[in-house]
């Protein structure tokens, strides 16, 4: 009795003094970003931590200051929203904003305020530097110049852009120019130039400062650099140190320094470059199991994962699970919109990515701004694809796939229009979608339900794009499984089909087939998709509302391993799950649910066995197919099945 009383008193004491806190403050999904647009209000997000189960935010308060003066306060806002909260104060270019957040929870606790910052970039009229370099793009060029601040420097920000590959150093310390490499930029020549921002306060010294740059030929006809440092002095005054006609250059390694050529070019097409954070945050996703070969397969894919969206749209969902992919993909969508032709076409191998990526990004991060920004591009693309049809059938060399992708595009545009309050467009796209599906059924589906050429690609696309009535789904997926068997377990899919074949199999009763396919993966897209399946289906973590505000954990013990575990960092914090099984029957599952979210844990209903949570017998909600579900708030829970 004394032991039980001590435990109870200890628990009461823990709850009484447990403190809720906030961390991981982000602006536009980035920690301490620089160079964000001074013309678009940023969104602010934070993660809440609490040792108490079932904790959620009930209110927040934001304060923003610039130059030591408060410029905006939200006041106390009664809301559970802790992601994508819009800043509503003034914005100016080349300005550092400090912001803080305090929250209140449903247990009557409040957090201490935590702070972070963001810095805005330049508007076109903020550029004072000249372009310097050479118009002969066939030779490398070295540039050098001096910057001489006049007083004690408080803050210094370098802004720069280039034609050609570029490496820059200030006083011998290299300034990161990763985003100015050609392989970070989609190969569409009509796109605007990127500029990058970098805090160089610690590199700049009183007196003379040496800037050195080296430019290498790529696809440009000239090799030019635009470089300026905006300085704020300790007394509050400001200055601009810049590239100009006083700089020198040496061409093609000659070592002979001559005056540069200086040019005044329009800066209205300069846009901020997105910092490459994905490679640094790829550790956000984790998977492990006792099968060393399977775990090694996952880690090989993870560590070789491409950082940049131009490699193709098929990798987005996997990227969002493994790391923070939002900055790259949202930036890329804004960037790619400038390439759209007047007729709505987009010069990419897979233009449908311009609809799929914004929709998948919204589901993963819950930020509707990517749909708002991308909607004109998405709608114009859908109209273009419809214009290419004849009697609602795609008229192309790859008409079957294009018909499915047209339907996918129309579905996404219709759903997006509905979310954005554009009921007219939503109704129009829905009507067109119905006609496109009817034309598909008449053209490609036989009376016995067989589809087109019977290939893995055909069945996967038809099922993913919901081209056939729901009552035929089971039979169609059976035919897909048979098509895989005919190929000896080797995948023959490409493009979008590679991204979704595992999910389609699992959702239609063939998770055992999906589990065996990893050794049959041939392409990077297939390997990435299988890793996505391990996380979302084998371990079973899937969002059920945008940004993981609600999610489901429904594992599938079909890989023959004794246990599996996985985790991912969502906008609300880390979600984790680990299960153990014997002979593919679950014996336990442990889940971690972040504060301010809820989850449904779904388990098979072993009718003759007892389910316990934290050593107490529990009864779940009856679900279809003999499963049981448990709706849970934040915390860590351990279920055992005896």
Low-confidence stretches: 1-14, 181-190
- The share of residues in helices is 25-40%
Indicate the structural class: alpha+beta
Number of helical segments with 4 or more residues? 14
Mean model confidence by pLDDT:
88
Shape: globular
Radius of gyration, taken over Cα atoms and rounded to an integer in Å: 28 Å
Largest sheet: 7 strands, mixed
Beginning-to-end CA distance, first to last residue: 28 Å
Strand-residue proportion: 25-35%
Walkthrough of the structure:
- The protein is built from 14 helices and 36 strands.
- The protein has 642 residues and is of the alpha+beta class.
- Strands 10, 12, 15, 17, 18, 21 and 22 form a seven-stranded mixed sheet that branches.
- The radius of gyration is 28 Å and the shape is globular.
Task: Give me some keywords for this one.
642 residues; alpha+beta; 7-stranded mixed β-sheet; 7-stranded antiparallel β-sheet; 36 strands; disordered N terminus
Question: Helices and strands in order, then pairings?
Answer:
Blueprint: H1 2-17, E1 21-27, E2 34-36, E3 43-49, E4 57-66, E5 69-73, E6 77-78, E7 85-86, E8 96-105, E9 114-120, E10 131-134, E11 141-147, E12 153-163, E13 165-170, E14 173-175, E15 193-199, E16 209-216, E17 223-233, E18 238-242, E19 248-251, E20 258-259, E21 261-263, E22 270-272, H2 278-281, E23 286-288, H3 292-303, H4 316-322, H5 326-337, H6 353-365, H7 369-387, E24 389-390, E25 393-394, H8 399-419, H9 423-444, H10 456-464, H11 473-486, H12 496-507, H13 511-515, H14 524-538, E26 541-543, E27 550-553, E28 563-570, E29 573-582, E30 585-593, E31 598-604, E32 611-613, E33 616-617, E34 621-623, E35 627-632, E36 635-641
Parallel strand pairs: 2-9, 15-22, 27-31
Antiparallel strand pairs: 1-3, 3-7, 4-5, 4-6, 4-8, 8-9, 10-17, 10-21, 11-16, 11-19, 12-15, 12-17, 13-14, 13-16, 17-18, 19-20, 23-28, 24-25, 26-27, 28-29, 29-30, 30-36, 31-35, 32-33, 32-36, 34-35
Helix pairs in contact: 3-14, 4-6, 5-6, 5-7, 6-7, 7-8, 8-9, 8-10, 10-11, 10-12, 12-14
